[in-house]
Design goal:
four-stranded antiparallel beta sheet; single chain; four-stranded mixed beta sheet; 2 domains; flat; PH-domain like; 6 helices; alpha+beta; 33% helix
Length: 299
């Protein structure tokens, strides 16, 4: 039996932060009853409750056991037998909508049931996604579907030392860091005896550099290895053996650089942002990986 476990980061963002704001709001109106007349007295608690509802509706508690699939949303429980599943996509792009207004395409596992319903298990919402995928794969191996099968031919030796990258100096990430640095240089002036405050913009720029650096990866193929390197952190080097990879996909995330998601045969999933790659380079990378026998997706 496998029970879903929420991502700690997502749980903090979508549960604990709204609860904290709700507590502060209750404390405010208790201390100052006049705030009840404010327009925000209605909007704020409604918005907080909608965030909580949206999170637990989109990411329900899931239990896979030997006989049943149990889905728990608030006070409602749905139970399906494994024989009711018609199709399984271990990795598929699905639209993650927010109140049916905003949305973006995110990676997920999807189970389609014979009666027309479906269960979408969002990768970013659960920290034991690999365990969930492995259990489903074991139970429904004959119903697995893949978006795009790889080429059966083996062309590993055709891509020795091939690099997939772009110009790191003229990306939005780099220009943003340079722009912030110029702004602080022109506007920030420390008073005599308080030079230590200069550390504030330096630390801020450093944090931005580290955060955006996670989106500045590029890729190399060398024999049977996919190598991930980074423009901002040249010492970074991660290697994946082609034979250990189940699937790769290009993934677009809202307000972030496009990236490559790698899913290994033990169903570990990792996203590598690559802000310098252009559409043509992405197409070439996915085509080359597909010709090496890997399943590929391009959203």
């Amino acid at each position: 039996m496998v029970t879903s476990k929420y991502s700690r980061i997502q749980l903090f963002i979508h549960f604990f932060i709204p609860i904290i704001f709700l507590g502060l709001f209750v404390k405010l109106i208790t201390k100052d009853p006049e705030t009840i007349k404010s327009f925000w007295v209605i909007i704020l608690p409604v918005a907080i409750l909608l965030i909580l509802y949206h999170f637990f509706y989109k990411a329900p508690s899931i239990v896979f056991d030997e006989n049943f699939i149990t889905i728990k949303r608030f006070f409602k429980k749905s139970v399906f037998g494994w024989d009711q599943v018609s199709n399984v996509f271990l990795s598929k792009k699905e639209k993650f909508s927010i109140l049916h207004i905003f949305g973006q395409s995110l990676e997920a596992m999807k189970l389609e049931f014979k009666e027309g319903k479906s269960l979408i298990v969002w990768s970013g919402m659960y920290r034991n996604m690999a365990e969930l995928r492995a259990f489903v794969s074991q139970k429904l191996n004959d119903k697995l579907h893949f978006i795009k099968e790889g080429n059966s031919s083996n062309l590993k030796n055709s891509f020795i030392n091939k690099k997939y990258s772009g110009n790191a100096f003229f990306t939005a990430n780099t220009l943003l860091i340079v722009g912030i640095a110029i702004f602080f240089f022109l506007k920030f002036d420390a008073k005599p005896g308080k030079e230590w405050v200069l550390l504030i913009p330096v630390l801020f720029i450093l944090l931005i550099y580290i955060f955006l650096g996670a989106q500045m990866n590029f890729f190399e193929i060398k024999n049977d290895l996919i190598i991930i390197r980074n423009h901002y952190f040249p010492w970074k080097k991660l290697e994946f053996n082609i034979n250990e990879i189940e699937e790769v996909s290009k993934e677009s995330q809202k307000k972030r650089s496009d990236g490559l998601r790698i899913i290994t045969k033990d169903f570990q999933s990792k996203f590598y942002g690559a802000g310098t790659l252009k559409d043509k380079t992405w197409e070439e990378l996915l085509a080359d990986l597909g010709s090496m026998g890997l399943k590929t997706q391009n959203d």
